[in-house]
Amino acid sequence: MENKKTLRNIVGIAAFCILLYWGLQNLNDVAHFVGTINSLLTPFFLGGAMAFIFNVPMRAIERHIPKKMEKVRRPMSLTLTLLAVVGVLMVVFLLVVPQLQETVQKIIRRLPAFWVSVQDYMYQLMTEYPALSEWLKEPVSIDWASLTKNAVNWMQTSGLALVGNTVSAATGIISGFVSFFIGFIFAIYLLSQKEALGRQGKMLLYAWLPEKKADKVLEVAALTNRTFSNFLSGQCLEACILGCLFAIGMLLFHMPYVLLVSVLVAVTALIPVFGAFIGCFVGAFLILIDNPMQAVVYVILFFVIQQIEGNLIYPRVVGNSVGLPSIWVLAAVTLGGSTMGVVGMLVMIPLCSVLYSLLRTATRNKLREKGIARMKYAMQADTVPGKGKSASKAKK
Question: CA-based Rg of the chain, rounded to a whole angstrom?
């Protein structure tokens, strides 16, 4: 039996080495295959992500529905969750779009006065610098043959590429809508049948894996689910806190667009740590149109609140919700943002929290196996002033 197992392991290692060698020699084919599989599975990944996010409020709503309504409990909670999500999006849309429309109209109304001020500034420049006026009065010679040749060359190269890029962009937008629709339907199916799917997943695990490994997989899955759910809750709470801080600060300084900017900051703050900078840019632009000096005050206010939020509120609120120390929250956000952008920021914090919990548990188990679990008490005694020597003497 041992010989068969050893032979099977050798054959598996040899097959893996052959596949690895072939993959390294044909990287383009491997990349094309991976891209094809990714495009096929993208709607289902998107649906799984939406189902996971929707499950957090749906689970809370479902707990408050009486048990008498067991038959309609799941459809009612799912419907209320979808209505709540759509309602929040509609409120944000109705708050943001009219204000942006008003701002654009205000910019259009001020364009004539701005053009007059530009003309006055140019006249002042030409008055102060006569050489500039003489240079502008010189006739400009245009080589029409060369200009026509360059235009034809551009149409033959960049023009066709621009048309191709436009078609590709339109195709990508249509494909994105189709993927979103398929993912949304898949998310509804997952939420409505999550218990049955959970039982089927456990059956597959226990059927194809040893019992201890299946238990470990389920333990890690439960930890991951709990951590990501707590992260979503903490992130939403932090965004609400940040939006309220901006509303209070803007009201104290009598700034315009208080509601619009506060909502924008709260929505963009869902992107960990750095998302509020998007709201800062948009808010500063809106206030700049109305009052340039207040825009400067707004930027200063933003940096003050950002320092308070980034160093005090965010690591404590989100760090406590996922069980990750503050320093590792900042490290996870920086690492995720530099590697995978916004998605990396959202995923890296709960992922690092799961890894941190698993490593902490494994380290404590190793210390117990080696019989040095009491080391932490000795370390705690050494950190207390005046107790380190007495603890070492007692040990002796």
Answer: 30
Report pLDDT for 300. Answer: 92
Evaluate whether residue 30 is within a structural domain: yes
CB 234 within 8 A of CB 317: yes
Domain extent for 110 = 1-132+172-192
Distance of CA 294 to the CA centre of its chain: 30
Phi, psi of 355 (to 5 degrees): -65, -40
Taking residues 178-193, what's their average pLDDT? 88
Write the DSSP symbol of residue 256.
Answer: S
Residue 322 is assigned to a structural domain of this protein: no
192 touches 74 (CB < 8 A): yes
Distances (CA, A) of 385 to 379, 380, 389, 390, 392: 12, 10, 9, 11, 13
DSSP 257-314: -HHHHHHHHHHHTTSTTTTHHHHHHHHHHHHHHH-HHHHHHHHHHHHHHHHHIIIIIH
Q: Kindly report, residue by residue over 170-179, the tens digit of the pLDDT.
A: 777 787 788 8
Q: DSSP state, 26?
A: T
Distance CA 192, CA 186 (A): 10
CB 345 within 8 A of CB 318: no
Distance of alpha carbon 154 from alpha carbon 358, whole angstroms? 58
Residue 392 belongs to some domain of the structure: no
CB 236 within 8 A of CB 317: no
Rounded-to-integer distance, Cα 106 and Cα 22, Å = 62
* Cα torsion 207, 208, 213, 217: sign: negative
- The count of other CB atoms within 10 Å of the CB of residue 76 is 14
Instruction: Judge whether 348 and 333 are in contact, CB under 8 Å.
Output: yes
Number of structural domains the chain divides into: 1
Cβ contact 382:388 at 8 Å: yes
Verdict on whether the full-model pTM lies above 0.90: no
Which residue matches tokens 């197992």?
A: 5
Instruction: Name residues whose C-beta falls within 8 Å of residue 314's C-beta, 6 or more positions apart in sequence.
Output: 238, 272, 273, 329
What are the tens digits of pLDDT across the range 47-90? 888 888 888 888 888 888 887 777 788 888 889 988 988 888 88
Instruction: Assess contact for 318 and 243: CB atoms under 8 A.
Output: no
d(CA 65, CA 75) in angstroms, rounded, equals 11
What distances in angstroms separate CA 368 from CA 182, 349, 364, 375, 379, one per listed residue? 49, 29, 6, 10, 16
